[in-house]
Amino acid sequence: MEIHEIATKKVFFFKKTTSTMDVARQLCQSEFEPVVVAETQTKGRGRHGREWVSDRGGLWVSVVWKDVSKNLLNHLFLVVSVSIIQTLNEFKISAKIKLPNDIYVRDNKIAGVLIENLNGCVIIGIGINVNNQISEKMDDATSCKEILGYSLDLEKVLEHLLRNLYLIRSQFETNAEKFLDKIKGLLI
What was the pLDDT predicted at 42? Predict the structure, then answer.
């Protein structure tokens, strides 16, 4: 494990872990809003315990937020989704939100979100197919590399994502109605 500071957050990097959500759950009581990143996950998961294929080259991250208001918690998937879409836009990829928890580019899934609320900590799991190979198990998935034709720097994508998460959270908390009006065009 290595620890770095990225976008003012303490980020715990692992070569391999079961799930970044599991590690974040362990850290959320001892660290203030830790961020956990893994090169690979052996038991990455999506909603309802479904397997999330998390091979090397993707961005597998869990972010812990504390002091999340009920209103933010009720709209957290949308806040996180807009943050992912903004990040992808910064790398010239246009994406949309597909409820209940996915981000799509045209007809292909590029990212997913998993949110758990635990003892005053909200753990936000984000998986983005960045440079990883898309396998048959991933059905209708795509990656940034497939779309762009070249690899992206994972740490740079992570930095953009973390900045956008906190920026979009602040925008929502400042004016939730305005935020919700703006995202209507981002839904599939």
Answer: 87
pLDDT in tens, 8-22: 999 999 999 999 999
Q: Rounded to whole angstroms, what are the CA distances from 3 to 14, 27, 141, 153?
A: 9, 13, 30, 18
Whether a cis peptide bond, with omega within 30° of 0, leads into 34 is: no
Per-domain residue ranges of the chain: 2-186
Nearest-5° angle of CA 116, CA 23, CA 117? 15
CB contact at 8 A, 51 and 19: no
**Burial (CB count within 10 angstroms: exposed 0-12, middle 13-18, buried 19+), residue 16:** exposed
User: Domain 2-186's class?
Assistant: alpha beta
Find residue 63's DSSP bridge partners: 35, 124
Helices then strands, each counted (H, E), the chain: 6, 8
Q: Phi and psi of 140, rounded to 5°?
A: -95, 30
